[in-house]
Design goal:
With 40 residues, the protein is mostly helical. The protein has two helices and no strands. The protein is elongated.
């Protein structure tokens, strides 16, 4: 699961920001630092 927090909190999540988050969510399995094989 992708966890993120937008700063400052007073800023709403715009469609542009949501598109960026969605992009990361689609590729999460490739970038997850805790997935098997990434730990040494």
């Amino acid at each position: 699961m992708l966890n993120y927090q937008l700063f400052p909190r007073s800023v709403a999540i715009t469609p542009e920001i949501q598109n960026i988050v969605d992009c990361f969510q689609l590729e999460y399995e490739k970038i997850d630092s805790d997935r098997k094989g990434n730990r040494k």
